[in-house]
Amino acid sequence: MAASDPRRALVAGICMSEQDVTDPREEARRIAGAFAAHLRHLQEFRGVRYVSAAPMPPGSPSAAAAEYEPLDQSGAPLDEPSVQREQTASSPLEASSPAPAPDVRSQAKSWSAAQKLEYLRAKNLGDCQRCPLAATRTKIVFGVGDADAPLMFVGEAPGHDEDLRGEPFVGRAGQRLNQWIEALGLTRSAVYIANVVKCRPPLNRDPEPLEVERCSPFLRAQIRAIRPQVLVALGRHAGMLLIGAERRSMGSMRQQVWTYEEPQAGLRVPVVVTYHPSYVLRQERDEAEGEGTTNATVLADLRRALALVTR
Ligand code: URA
Fold first, then answer.
1. How far apart are CA 284 and CA 275, in angstroms?
2. How much is the average pLDDT of 11-36?
3. How many angstroms does the Cα of residue 56 sit away from the middle of ligand 1?
4. 97 in ligand 1 pocket by Cβ < 6 Å?
5. Residue 113: how many other CB atoms lie within 10 Å
6. Which end of the chain, N or C, is surrounded by fewer C-beta atoms within 10 Å?
7. What is the number of alpha carbons within 13 Å of residue 164 lying toward its C-beta?
């Protein structure tokens, strides 16, 4: 086939190099397979199939986790046994997901929130390589607290201390968050704390849109597992993600109680957006001694959130 052949040009453009093109029909099938795999990946990442629909082998989540391979590069959640993966996947893009066994799915429905989180951490998130932050992180920072907590806090992304410890909000911002939690008459272990992004962005920069896109399905799955009564978004990034806004100022998000919705999971959770503890710490440097205006504002927001908890 001549190099100017449009089919060849198309295939060569979409795929790798012209040397790889042997049979255009074969190549077209390969591309279709790659698109299908990508589509499945997007479906997973729309958050519909995590946790509640993840195929499960019999037994406890932790026992099952040991039988599974670490995550591959495709971004597909690790939800089929290694033997099936070996049969079907010769490259990440060609990996196909066998239909999950219905008995296993129904088994997962009866799990506790803690079991779902354990499965999500071990099996779906695993040694995540879905975005570039994997290359620079020390530890994945999944989440901490009571899986049955009525109140769930959502921050932005781990910082230096969190990256080293593998636990959210353990640095200076975390100390301030702990003070807020205590001011509500609660303890850190009685709430659940997670971030939009589970790995530290280098130099604590804002998470990139791709990082949020790849990682936020895990937050959504955590929310579905925990089913908190109220969500508190700490800062603008968490706020925009939870209320589904593209671009919004903190000022406008703080003014009302929003709703986090996942209709397929039958989930409608009130969301209160307030300032991030790091922002408050920065503000305090500029506020007059003892003023504490921003801190007081946050405490008022948090009390509004707590008032929405009914159990
Ligand atoms: N800031 C966040 O948003 N999350 C953490 O875990 C720590 C600091």
1. 13
2. 67
3. 32
4. no
5. 19
6. C
7. 4
Task: Supply 60's token pair.
Answer: 């406890």
Give the distance (Å) from ligand 1 centre to CA of residue 116: 23
Query: What pTM value is reported for the model?
Result: 0.72
- Quick one: pLDDT at residue 28? 87
- Phi first, then psi, for residue 43 (nearest 5°) are -60, -45
Name the amino acid, one letter, at 50: Y
- Mutate which of 163, 169, 170, 236 for ligand 1? The one with the most ligand atoms within 8 Å of its CB, which is 169
| Structure-model confidence comparison of residues 284 and 34, the more confident one | 284
CB of 197 shorter than 6 A to ligand 1? no
Contact present, 64 and 123 (Cβ < 8 Å): yes
pLDDT number for residue 148 = 98
Distance, in Å, from the CA atom of 154 to the CA atom of 231, rounded to the nearest integer, reads 7
* Distance separating alpha carbons of residues 228 and 287, to the nearest angstrom: 34
How far does the centroid of ligand 1 lie from the alpha carbon of residue 9, in Å?
A: 47
Question: What does the buried/exposed string (b/e) look like for 176-193 if buried means 16 or more CB atoms within 10 Å of the residue's CB?
Answer: bbbebbeebebebeebbb
Q: Tell me, in angstroms, the distance from the centre of ligand 1 to residue 237's CA.
A: 11
Q: Which of 154, 276, 298 to mutate to test the pocket of ligand 1 (most atoms within 8 A of CB)?
A: 276
* pLDDT for residue 291: 74
CA distance 238 to 220: 12
| Pocket of ligand 1 contains residue 207 by CB under 6 Å | no
| Mean pLDDT confidence for 11-27 | 59
Rounded Cα distance between 251 and 275, Å, is 9
Q: Is the distance from CB of 131 to CB of 236 less than 8 angstroms? A: no
- What is the spatial distance between Cα 99 and Cα 114, in angstroms, rounded to a whole number? 25
Q: Up-side HSE of residue 207: CA atoms within 13 Å toward CB?
A: 28
Tell me how many degrees the CA angle 176-143-162 measures, rounded to the nearest 5.
Answer: 55
pLDDT level of residue 44 (50, 70, 90 thresholds): low
